[in-house]
Amino acid sequence: MRIPVATDAWHPQVNGVVRTLTKLADAAKGLDVEFTFLTPQSFRTFAMPSYRDVRLAMPRPARIARLIEEARPDSIHVATEGPIGLMVRRYCRQRKLPFTTSFHTRFPEYVRARVPVPGALIWRALRRFHNASRAVMAATPALARELTGRGFDNVVLWPRGVDTALFHPRAIDLCLPAPVFLSVGRLAVEKNLEAFLALDLPGTKVVVGDGPARAALEAAYPDAIFLGEKHGEALAEVYAAADVFVFPSRTDTFGLVLLEALASGLPVAAFPVKGPRDVIGDAPVGVLDDDLRGACLAALDISRQACVAFAANYTWEASARAFVDSIVAVGAVLPGRTGADQPRFVA
Q: Which end of the chain is less packed: N or C, by CB atoms within 10 Å?
């Protein structure tokens, strides 16, 4: 089964969308499913205003059509609502082809962190975008219920996973004053890093990641340790060396870093908002509180073993099965394609 995925987020960007799609493609190989990606690398791009490290594509309809047809798709998935996603959506609509979409980013909150645009207008545009698909995939049951309540049609569940072979406890010492409070992610205004960095905490604050807000944050909080981007083993070792994972974002739909931290044995401290609340729920692996300092200190008493056991429930193989199963279940296999005869996968 061949599935081209339209995504405006791609390497060298480091974010949850890119990691999710990369891990999905790797895990799907065991299901005899091949993913290809329509990304900004295939088009002319320009720097996104206010975030020059992100390049936005300028796709042409003819090239979009050629790339899709060269992929010989059995199904088509649109992962993002940017220029490439919009153009692939248009391609499918014009040809009356079924397709699926996924909801990764809370754009109303993301945009309002930068410009004063009414959230209702953005939600209306998102509904229009996604309701043309056979299914919109959401990472958690709570997000699925929220989208349904906001008028999104055909919402299905697509859970995420974590690579426990990479992210696991190990003996690592950063040679920093303990306890070590760690945050990992893009350094941008919507991530709300200042809510963490401004806290009066013992030990050391460590930040992994890069982005447009890095220079200002480093200047404002010289006592924090900024390590820049980390990947693979280098990232896993930083997780393992910390004591608490702090997640100050109020806008993320899921937060893969939460699972990476938990798999590494790190309890979570976060605000009681949808992203961390949907991942952790009532499990004794984190503290969600509007008093983020109190959450950080209370998280120090949480069992690291409990965190590891919790994360073990999330695998990328199960995520890939759920993704493919949803495509088949909603009838998003293209007419006359061999994918229609593929077995239905059950997680």
A: C
Give yes or no on whether 2-161+315-341 and 180-311 have one common fold: yes
End-to-end CA distance of the chain: 18
What is the distance between the alpha carbons of residues 204 and 51, in angstroms, rounded to a whole number? 28
The rounded distance, in Å, linking the Cα atoms of 251 and 273 is 8
Sign of the CA dihedral with 62 first, then 74, 70, and 47 last: positive
Instruction: Name the pTM for this structure.
Output: 0.86
Q: Could you give the count of Cα atoms lying within 13 Å of 193 in the half-sphere of its Cβ?
A: 26
Which tokens hold the place of 237? 């070792």
What does the alpha-carbon distance between residue 132 and residue 89 come to, in Å, rounded to a whole number?
A: 8
Copy the structure tokens of residue 49.
């205003």
Contact 84/39 with Cβ under 8 angstroms?
Answer: yes
Q: Rounded to whole angstroms, how far apart are CA atoms 36 and 70?
A: 11
Of 24-28, 43-47, 49-53, 108-112, minimum mean pLDDT range = 108-112
Domain map of the chain by residue range?
A: 2-161+315-341, 180-311
Bond from prior residue into 212 cis (ω within 30 degrees of 0): no
Q: Which residues are within 8 A (CB) of 169 and not within 5 positions of it... i.e. 6 or more apart?
A: 240, 264, 265, 304, 308
CATH superfamily, domain 2-161+315-341, is Glycogen Phosphorylase B; (3.40.50.2000)
Instruction: Please work out, in degrees rounded to the nearest 5, the angle formed at the alpha carbon of residue 179 by the alpha carbons of 175 and 180.
Output: 65
Is the pLDDT reported for residue 113 higher than 70?
no
* pLDDT at site 116: 64
Candidate CATH numbers 3.40.50.1970, 3.40.50.300, 3.40.50.2000, 3.40.50.12780; the one for domain 180-311: 3.40.50.2000
